[in-house]
Amino acid sequence: MRKKVTLITGVSGEVGLALVKSLAEAGKNDLLSLDIRPIPAEYAQYSEHIQGDILDKSLLNRLVSEYEIVSIFHMAALLSTRGEFTPVAAHQVNVEGTMGLLQLAAEQSEWRGDPVMFIFPSSIAVYGMPDLETKSQYPRVREWEWNYPITMYGCNKLYCEMLGTYFCSNYRQLAVERPQMLDFRCVRFPGLVSAFTVPSGGTSDYGPEMLHAAAKDEPYAAFVRPDTQIPFMAMPDAVAALLLLSQAPKSALNRMVYNVTSYSLTAEQFRDQVMKSFAGAKIEFKPDPKRQRIVDTWPADLNDNDARRDWDWEPGYNVERSFEEYLIPNILQRYRN
User: Fold this and answer.
1) Where are the domains of the chain?
2) pLDDT (tens digit, 9 = 90+) per residue, 249-303?
3) What is the reported pLDDT for 202?
4) What Cα–Cα distance (Å) separates residue 221 from each residue in 73, 109, 160, 188, 303?
5) Please, are residues 279 and 223 in contact by the beta-carbon 8 Å criterion?
6) Which pLDDT score is estimated for 109?
7) What pLDDT is recorded for position 335?
């Protein structure tokens, strides 16, 4: 008999590491992780890990033959800034990789006679506001507004949201016998800030990069203007959102894609928060025109009313608690060791 497992892809990334630890500490002992990189040694206790590529079809076939996959947290992605340098590779990882997993989940759902839950993290990058005036006129956007991304990563994420919706509701609708559909659920994250993992190529990473540079007593030049404003979220809230959505009864959900957010800051306000704890930090602003253009298309804040109504979403970390209780103490501890 095949072992029933929850599959987590991209486990060595910022969200994946925090997620696998939280799931294990909550009592999940059936975790199977997959990443192109090895899992860090301190996290190896939390899951059975397979090092491999989600684009490897033979590997996916092996997983299906050896495990009964009952749920998937698909964290693997090539992020926004890196994706602009390698757009073809970004499309392969972000779209083709997701497509392969959705196909796997749909087939598992049909075989089991019970939908596989597919949790998908999307991004603020799916939005594309045309100019700063529009951004100021519409400061808090809903899920269906301004979905005109200008990056490969944003396009990939938006398309994968649509693919997930298709596989959930309309996959093989013309087949003689329609199979059981999978259970697709998606959260759109703002910029994420982690105390335990270093930034890894996201366009919102100027915030966490300030923190890590200050803790190491290194100078840092932010690649955006001081007045640049986007929403942020501390990593524990990101993990909490994924878990809370996965635990919500299907009958309570009125949509498949949900905004979540915590607080909104300008780059200058983010720096000011850093300076409270690192008074001697050397942080300046040297906007990079290309990266600035990307961030300017993202909304200043996200409207997450639907998540709050449907599955009781509420962030646990406001600005003060994020910095005072989570970010500063843990980052200080990180660089003291």
Assistant:
1) 77-336
2) 999 999 999 999 999 999 999 999 999 999 999 999 999 999 999 999 999 999 9
3) 77
4) 34, 49, 33, 28, 30
5) no
6) 87
7) 85
Residue 231 pairs with which residues in a beta bridge?
264
Candidates 260, 239, 241, 114; CA nearest to 183 is 114
pLDDT of residue 173: 65
pTM comes to: 0.93
Q: Which residues of the chain have pLDDT under 50?
A: none
Question: What's the CA gap between 90 and 260, in Å, rounded?
Answer: 24
pLDDT at 336: 78
Residue 37: HSE in the Cβ half-sphere, 13 Å Cα cutoff: 13
Give me the architecture of the 77-336 domain, per CATH.
Answer: 3-Layer(aba) Sandwich (3.40)
User: For residues 195 and 325, what is the distance between their CA atoms, to the nearest angstrom?
Assistant: 11
The pair of three-digit structure tokens given for residue 185, joined into one six-digit string: 């659920």
State how far the Cα of 46 lies from the Cα of 255, in Å rounded to an integer: 32
146: left (phi over 0), alpha (psi -120 to 50) or beta: left
Beta strands, E only, the chain: 3-9, 31-35, 48-51, 67-74, 117-123, 140-141, 183-189, 191-193, 220-222, 229-234, 257-259, 263-266, 283-285, 301-302
Q: What are phi and psi of 257, to 5 degrees?
A: -120, 125
266, burial (CB in 10 Å: exposed 0-12, middle 13-18, buried 19+): middle
